[in-house]
Amino acid sequence: MNKMSKEQKHQQCLKEIKATVIVTLICCAWHIITAFALNGSGLYFLGMPAWFSVSVFGTIVLALLGVWYLMKKVFVDFDYDDEELSEEKEVA
Fold first, then answer.
1. pTM above threshold 0.70
2. Which of 4, 22, 28, 68 is deepest in the core (most CB within 10 A)?
3. What pLDDT is stored for residue 83 in this prediction?
4. H or E segment at 29?
């Protein structure tokens, strides 16, 4: 685990929150855009309308890739407990 100051921990939490919101917005945008773009095209994929297949399965793939990216590049393992409180408990 990384040793971080309270401010660094706070900044890391904000970074993780922002990155997660961005991945969520990308997934939502893909879902909505492909559903509207392919609606009424008359195409079928896997026995279902193309708008449904591409929208739903594409969103699942994007979400999995987004989570993989967040876990590898954005999230950091650290203990969020206050170090001062844990030091006081150790002394007592």
1. yes
2. 4
3. 60
4. helix 6-38
